[in-house]
Design a protein that fits this description.
Number of helices: 29
Bound molecules: iron/sulfur cluster
Oligomer: single chain
Strand order of the largest sheet: 11-10-9-12-13
Structural class: alpha/beta
Number of strands: 15
Distance between the termini: 108 Å
Shape: elongated
Strand content: 5-15%
């Protein structure tokens, strides 16, 4: 078994993953990749997953060993933010060509590493394996090892070629590379009893900076954030933290569990989305730190900060609650913790009509049931057609989702808010919760939706034209046709005698009674008696006048 295959198998056996735990040994060997259905999209590859998980390390050069399209596919596709270096956003690739495929790409990789060191001198280079060099047998582990020794610089192989599996597997392979080559390789300048790691936190739109001031106020230091706004030196020395918070368990559970096993760093799974979840996470961090030797006054100070922030946040969202009364939301998240966002939306006074659970763990689903009730509408997979129908039938007033589903909402002319990794606004912490409420309100009350739902001018014109071309419109426009249609109206349905026949008989013979009409026409005069009487007393029609 190659070392990559062994690592992949090891991930499938991850005891921290509830999904793995519920599988048989044979099922675990098959991994988590599901057979695609016709019409579905495949999502990102394992390389893409590794790149997404590690690219937020801001001072690292991320070198993609493969054809240029792999880098184009994965470059900067998450809205993470940096407080310092911008090197992470520079795209580096070996841009393999046909010649490299024939003769091998290892020399080219070595040259690329040297060029990056000469031009940028980063603290480390992450080298990502992709499908083509993996298939032609380029040994990036050996190249990185040789380059590290030659240039006296950490050159880290991220062995996650696209073909090994899903994007999520790539997230975990990225974590394995950190555990194997980075974490524990350096020492921090100093340590404190308040040092923590945040694992699986990506600082989307800079949202971590909305929570960091509160941690600073409590004296809690983020020794390392893996990987949002992360620095190489910080993650290399993260093994000295006292406690850890796991933000995205789906992508980095293996990192948190193995750091606990290797370095004794306890962790909990928490969230900074929503008021109560933010408070609970601060509380749990304080408790873990105190357990690991931090002074106990941290607990009281944390409660004081929570009380102040909660009071501010509840007061700030109160004016929106009457505006949200009776409003229903549909939540389709990709990566963000669904249960946490459900709680946040309920805090804002919205009713949840459904939430996606495609990327949720079984623990997450239990939490959603606790919040939304046992009958919660949990959507494993919903086609765009079903989403559209749900919105169009007004089962929801707003959809919160990622960019991929935005066009479904726009087509249904329903309000939509971006809540996934590409979003422009930061929703973390107390400040983020107020921002989320503001943005939902803006989206719900935008005058755009009413205008969008009105028929376009050309649609009104088309309807009028259609009406003009209908048989009814043709009859209305032509008096002769109209008269023919009038005379064709059935008076005696039993014997199929029309109005024209009866009128002609009345005027030809000067008839004055129903019995006389019965005598001169085939009309029965039973159930049609009233109608014949009405004709006998009616005003002369144009035809009668003409006949007279
Ligand atoms: S599937 Fe392979 S070739 Fe395609 S982007 Fe991923 S690594 Fe590159």
């Amino acid at each position: 078994m190659s070392s990559l295959a062994a690592t992949v198998q090891n991930i499938f056996d991850e005891p921290g993953c509830a999904k793995n735990g519920s599988k048989s040994e044979a099922e675990r060997k098959n991994g988590c990749t599901k057979q695609l259905q016709p019409g579905s999209a495949a999502g990102g590859c394992a390389f893409d997953g590794a790149k997404v998980a590690l690219q937020p390390f801001t001072d690292v050069a991320h070198l993609v060993h493969g054809p240029i399209a792999c880098e184009g596919n994965s470059w900067d596709n998450r809205g993470a933010a940096s407080s310092g270096s911008n090197l992470w956003r520079t795209a580096f690739t070996t841009d393999l060509s046909e010649t490299d495929i024939v003769f091998g790409g290892e020399k080219r990789l070595c040259k690329a590493i040297k060029e990056i060191i000469d031009k940028c001198d980063p603290p480390a280079i992450f080298v990502y394996q992709t499908c083509i060099p993996a298939m032609i047998g380029d040994d990036i582990n050996a190249v990185c090892k040789a380059a590290s020794q030659r240039f006296a610089k950490p050159v880290i192989p991220i062995n996650s070629p696209g073909f090994v599996g899903s994007k999520n597997l790539g997230n975990k392979l990225a974590g394995e590379a950190l555990l194997d080559y980075v974490i524990g390789t350096q020492e921090p300048d100093y340590t404190t009893p308040y040092d923590i790691n945040l694992i699986g936190e990506y600082n989307l739109s800079g949202e971590l900076w909305q929570v960091k001031p509160l941690l600073d106020e409590l004296g809690v230091r983020i020794l390392s954030c893996i990987s949002g706004d992360g620095k190489y030196r910080e993650v290399a020395s993260s093994h000295r933290a006292r406690a850890a918070m796991l933000v995205c368990s789906k992508s980095m559970i293996n990192v948190a569990r193995k750091m606990e096993q290797r370095y004794g760093i306890p962790f909990f799974e928490g969230s900074f989305y929503g008021i109560q979840d933010s408070s609970e996470s601060l509380r749990q961090l304080a408790r873990l730190l105190v357990k690991r030797g931090a002074p106990t006054d941290l607990l009281g100070r944390t409660e004081a900060v929570i009380a102040r922030e909660e009071a501010w946040a509840w007061a700030a969202i109160e004016p929106y609650k009457p505006r949200f009364e009776g409003k229903k939301a549909l939540l389709i998240t990709g990566g963000v913790k669904s249960w946490s966002v459900v709680a946040a939306l309920q805090e804002a006074g919205l009713e949840l009509v459904g939430t996606s659970v495609k990327k949720s763990t079984s623990k997450d689903k239990e939490r959603i049931k606790e919040l939304m009730g046992q009958d919660a509408h949990m959507i494993e997979d919903m086609t765009p057609r079903e989403l559209y129908k749900m919105l169009k039938d007004a089962k929801a007033d707003i959809m919160l989702s990622g960019g991929k589903s935005q066009f479904v909402a726009l087509k249904a002319a329903m309000p939509w808010l971006d809540i996934n990794q590409e979003r422009c606004h930061a929703y973390m912490g107390y400040v983020g919760m107020v921002k989320l409420v503001e943005e939902i309100d803006k989206s719900l009350s935008s005058p755009m939706w009413e205008q969008l739902r009105r028929p376009a001018p050309w649609q009104a014109l088309a309807k009028a034209m259609e009406q003009m071309q209908s048989p009814v419109a043709a009859i209305a426009c032509d008096p002769a046709l109209a008269e023919t249609a009038r005379r064709a109206r059935k008076i005696c349905v039993c014997n199929a005698v029309d109005l024209g026949t009866i009128e002609d008989a009345i005027y030809a013979h000067g008839l004055r009674s129903v019995a006389a009409v019965r005598e001169h026409t085939n009309a029965v005069g039973g159930c049609c008696q009233r109608r014949i009487e009405a004709i006998l007393v009616s005003e002369p029609s144009a035809m009668r006048q003409a006949a007279e």
